Amino acid sequence: MSTYKILIVEDSPTMRQLIVFALKRIRGLTIVEANDGVDGLKKLSADRFDLILTDINMPIMDGLKLVSLVRNDPNYKAVPIVIITTEGASEDRERALALGANDYITKPIQTTQILDVAKRLLNITI
Amino acid sequence: MTEREEDKLAGKKAEEFLQVFKKGAEFTQDLLKENERLRYRLLQLEEGVRGESGGAEDSETVRMRLRIEELERQKDEILGRIKQVEAENHDFANRYIDIENENNMLANLYIASYQLHSTLDFREVLQVITEIVINLIGAEEFAIMLLDEKTNKLQAVVAEGLDQREIPSVGIGDGIIGQMAKTGENYFIDDMEGYVRDFGHPLVCIPLKIKEHVIGVIVIYKLLVQKSRFAEVDFELFTLLAGHAATAIFSSKLYSESERKLSTIQGFLDLLTK
User: Fold this and answer.
1) Cβ pairs A/B, distance under 8 A
2) Domain boundaries, chain A
3) How far is CA B199 from the centre of its chain?
4) What CATH number does the domain located at B117-263 have?
5) Which of B131, B226, B235, B236 has the highest number of chain A CBs within 10 A, making it the mutation to test binding with A?
6) Among B98, B134, B223, B230, which would you mutate to test the A interface (most chain A Cβ atoms within 10 Å of its Cβ)?
7) Per-residue tens of pLDDT for chain A, all 126 residues
8) Can you tell me the distance from the alpha carbon of B142 to that of B139, in angstroms, rounded to the nearest whole number?
9) How many CA atoms lie within 13 A of B204 on its CB side?
């Protein structure tokens, strides 16, 4: 069975728990949590990840900066990134996608929404 | 040859001719009889053949007709079953959506409840309530107001998207917020479209209650731009917040006070025992 590793970068423990809850339906999944962009980069450099889910508004380093750094690093540039944010304006979405995010989900989220996007980006058909 | 002899010869020839004629007539008669017999036989054979082939065709037709009828019946049965399965599939798909929605709702409620009771620190409890209102409900501007038992007024202790100092205190029974705090009922504005923020008239006002005792309210003034209306899960979350947020706030307050008192008593004991 394939195993996937996902990095969740989110400062809200409530949101992290909800995202973990949603993703746990994928079998063989390892989830690593980070509180902000810097913590996310640290954890990213310590392991190989198949997917990154990140918030935008976070202390120390925001999600857009994280996306920009990840996309400019040859080691991680191919890792799919999903933004999960309260910022629902179309310009925010366009900006995130232009920086290299693969998908953009606005809060409040549906657990199925997260699951569907993760499955699609991980090429899981079941 | 004499005339007599000639007559005798002619009579003999006539006799011979007559004999030949008679034989020819008999032969013809025989031929006609044989012809008649053969024709009769042919007719018999034709009827026999026609009778045999005609009977076989009828039984095969009957067999085929019965088979067709059986297949038609089976086809109708299969079509009926397909329609039934399609209807069941449709029903299952709807049930799947319902279950997914229910699952989503339960996940939200479980996580909100889990987080609310994950700490006894008053500030952390307020932070959890704030996170729930932003992330799970989708509010952009809101406040948590707690009842000051000395003044009997609701005071904003947390404001998100607003300047806390701008939010006026509200007496119990005053305006919509005061009335909801007095009655313990939830308030939802009738029409959210075209709403302009009014501190005395929020979009939503949820009293925080321990049984019937109101300790504060959550007032929402603006939702996130992508949130146009409340979903079923939001009303469930409001109900959960009304009870669980109140107990979490109350417990954390009691815990903080008991910690403070314990610390004071410990200080006295330390002084006495030194």
Assistant:
1) 58
2) 4-121
3) 42
4) 3.30.450.40
5) B226
6) B134
7) 568 999 999 999 999 999 999 999 898 899 999 999 999 999 999 999 999 999 999 999 999 999 999 999 998 989 999 999 999 999 999 999 999 999 999 999 989 999 999 999 999 886
8) 7
9) 24
